[in-house]
Amino acid sequence: MRERVGAIAIVVVFLASAAWAQGAAPPSLQDQLSAQYTMVTMGTDSNGPAVLQPGTILTIQKGGILGVPYDNVAMAPAKYQDGTLHPPAATQTGSAGNVGKKLCGLFGKCNGVKEQVGQQTTSHFFQVGNKVYPSKLEVNTSKDTVTLSVVACDSCNKTDPTTFYKSEVVFEFPKGSLAAMSVPKVEDTISQVFSMDQGGDSQQGQDDQGGQDQQAGDQQGGDQQAGNQQGGGNQQAGNQQQAPESIAKGQTIDQVVASWGQPQRIVNLGAKQIYIYQDAKITFLNGKVSDVQ
Predict the structure, then answer these.
(1) How far is it, in rounded angstroms, from Cα 161 to Cα 173?
(2) Segment 240-253 mean pLDDT
């Protein structure tokens, strides 16, 4: 068995080496990571930004990620390094109400950001547990960074009206380490900030649907039980109806017919008559029961 496994491994290595020798480069870290996430496809409708094709649902695990309106040209990225999420530099001081003004100072212009006293601010910090779609992933091995851009999953968060806030987080790895790092290890780092959704929303929908199906099944079972009861009642009534009446020697023909109904055949032998039923043969002598078989 070991020899067979070893032979297979050698063949795989040989084929891979042959493919690389023919110019087929192995998949890059960018390609391998991108394959783990389905990016959201955004568009517009009569109400503004809209999700055309949902992506992988991610759940935010750490606070400090600043969302800005979807039509903003620039974003204020957070940085994740050594297990700590650092909010955008412009938001580390001052109140949340000044975030919009600080963004204007950070980018040199407001890029459409409007902030009015007494109205809702145009920026928004995502909360732990909020769900987002990945919209873009960039790997820069020379800088040892992976940048993940996200868009709010408003339907998941039950946000109405929709906002489609967007943001991004730059994952910074030790210098010179990213190029040789395995994909699972990079994914583990990303999952500390954005974990793959475990299907809570879809599971809830399945549970709701399952509850409806179970309720329908219970109701159907109740109908079946009622049908069985009704069928049992009918069968019982049928059994009662089909229960044979007692026949006593000396009963007249009229008494027997009243209980048993008309026979299938009658054998007339004068003073002796035989009434033949499906399950019995009754003999009358001079109009009275003399024998039953």
Answers:
(1) 38
(2) 72
Number of structural domains found in the chain: 2
- pTM recorded for the entire structure: 0.55
In 39-136, alpha helices (H) = 99-107
Does residue 9 register a pLDDT over 70? no
* Enclosing domain of residue 291: 247-293
Average pLDDT taken over every residue of the chain: 76
- Among the candidates 131, 163, 198, a domain finishes at 198
Peptide bond into 161 cis (omega under 30): yes
Return the closest-CA partner of residue 178 out of 46, 271, 81, 264.
81
| pLDDT score for 47 | 84
Token pair for residue 140? 């820069």
Phi then psi dihedrals of residue 42, to 5 deg: -105, 155
The answer to whether residues 143 and 86 touch, using CB atoms and an 8 Å cutoff, is: no
Please state, in angstroms and rounded to a whole number, the distance separating the CA atoms of residues 211 and 233: 32
